[in-house]
Amino acid sequence: MVLKLPKSIGLSQHSAHHYRGKVSLLNHQQNKESQDVSLKKQFDVEEVRKDFPILKRKVHGSPLVYLDSGASAQKPKSVIDTVSRYYSEQHANIHRGVHHLSQEATQAYEEAREVIRGYINAKHSHEVLFTKGTTDGINLVASSFGRKFINEGDEVIVSTLEHHSNIVPWQMICEEKGASLKVIPINQAGELNMEEFKSLLNDRTRLVSVTHVSNSLGTINPVEEMIELSHAKNVPVLLDGAQAVPHKHVDMQALDVDFYVFSGHKLFGPTGVGVLYGKEDLLNQMPPYQGGGDMIEKVTFEKTTYNSLPHKFEAGTPNIVGGIGLGAAVVYFDQFDEKQILDHEQDILAYATDQLSQIEGVKFIGTATEKASVVSFLLEGSHPFDVGTLLDQQGIAVRTGHHCTQPLMDFYGIPGTVRASFAIYNNRADVDALVAGVKRAANMLL
Amino acid sequence: MSTIDDIQNEIIEEFEFFDQWMDKYEYIIDLGKKLAPLNDQFKHDDNLIPGCQSRVWLHAEMENDQVKFTADSDAVITKGIIALLIRVLSNQTAEQISRSELYFIDRIGLKEHLSPTRSNGLVSMVIKIKAIADNLKRYH
């Protein structure tokens, strides 16, 4: 597979010293139009672990075993350094300043946007909007697209797998407009019922908004097919990519998706920043989401005209360091061959599934054929909270509870699960620690 | 008749036996398993304590001027923690409960060892117990 280079390289070359997070990548690429896999860094989990300083710390006296990357991923040193360097050397407000620092900061911020554009292969960088995160991106679309395109009697389709952030914004706009929310059902394995999906799509459908990868179960949805089916009915599609982008490369043009949202902090970047990709044509038709500075062209008390994309949707001083840090995170993640990352994570997933299944009483929730590296389980006869508490005492960080997917938990008739989510820096030793920890918890609880 | 502080001191002493946190949890789990069951009729929403990751029901009754607490939870560690609270505060007068200062929670390290969600749960339990006592004080 050939990855396209961010087009900003020429731009970046002379300003590389402003944005050192990507210097190494630039050096590799500066004389090439495209970069192929052979140029990618060989993936070695033990080497990767060294890039994440936090993995050296101890929790409750035990070495940290971090299995909660689905909630938030840890940060590589290059991201931490980029953030720290930005504040130490470069910070100023962006876009309006005539002074040097402001221009440097603007350039770094806009270069980050360009790096992200290249990474997700969006056609234009103004289709890449910075947001506060996935939730913010969905709210932006629900509010703005919804205001313009959703009317009384219309329908929006989501799925049983959705995170609350891809349910509630749609409920709010549907309630306001007198539209209704339709839900794609799932089977016991946690896979979407595609026949039901087809029958839900009709002339009243205004948008399909589904998760790319389920945060609670790890199910990878057949998004290509869903986009094709939706487009055949002229229905645009929003994908919640929060749990997809930390594991795989997503290509906006190949997917032909209309909106794609994700969070920076789950992709090894800073918190409080995320991306909403939207097709230019749609974004241009949508009204602004929030009013304020940066999003205007001209303001008078009689009438305000709006700025062009992406600024129209980026009111106020943005999370500048967040955007720049996210750019550095993308550069970090993109240095590895995607297939090697996938192979590694699938190996960890298979190993964890196999090892945990040998513990008496462990019951998996979510057994889809296509799964990202997430294991949700219950220890029969015990509450997820108890298991999580005892794992924590052993330095093992997992997530317990409903994972902000209460309707999904209701489907399974459970209060929640114990979820171990694996990222590029998790190894088989982490799985061994988890298995030993669960065994010890089982001995104490049952 | 032991006072609230007598019982708190007893618990602090018991916890001093454990140097490992896992042993403390083993003890809490054991207390949870042994907690007298709560009649199903009292497991209704009014008795649910908000702010806990697991469900916790707390029921109060007056018996000869004393408040008697019974409780249940679907998580056994939570149940063990509420068993400790009940041991300290049950069978005391509403006035005593309302005036009590629960220093044992900090002293046995429960607060610092419970994550914010869980700690909030513990805080919610205490708030609920005190609210019940205050209420009873007013009407009895």
Structure description:
By secondary structure, chain A is an alpha/beta fold. Chain A has 2 domains: 109-334, 3-Layer(aba) Sandwich (Aspartate Aminotransferase, domain 2), CATH 3.40.640; 338-445, Aspartate Aminotransferase, domain 1 (Alpha-Beta Complex). Chain A contains 16 helices and 19 strands. Chain A has helices at residues 9-15, 23-29, 45-50, 77-90, 100-120, 134-149, 168-177, 194-200, 223-232, 252-255, 280-285, 320-334, 338-357, 384-393, 406-412, 428-445; strands at 2-4, 34-36, 58-59, 62-63, 65-66, 128-131, 155-159, 180-184, 205-211, 237-240, 259-263, 274-278, 296-299, 304-306, 362-364, 374-379, 396-397, 399-401, 417-421. Chain A has a 7-stranded mixed beta sheet with strand order 6-12-11-10-9-7-8, sandwiched between helices. The relative contact order of chain A is 0.16. Mean pLDDT of chain A is 92; it is low at 1-35. Chain B is of the alpha+beta class. Chain B has one domain: Sufe protein. Chain: A (Alpha-Beta Complex). Helix content of chain B is 56%, strand content 13%. Chain B has helices at 4-15, 21-34, 76-89, 94-99, 104-107, 110-113, 116-139, and strands at 56-63, 66-73, 92-93. Chain B has a 3-stranded antiparallel beta sheet. In chain B, helix 2 (21-34) crosses helix 3 (76-89) and helix 3 runs parallel beside helix 7 (116-139). The longest helix of chain B is centred in the C-terminal third of the chain and has 24 residues, at 116-139. The mean pLDDT of chain B is 88. Chain A binds chain B through residues 60, 382-383, 385-386, 389-390, 392-394, 400-401, 415-416, 440, 444-445, and chain B through 21-22, 25-26, 29, 53-55, 74-78, 113, 115, 118.
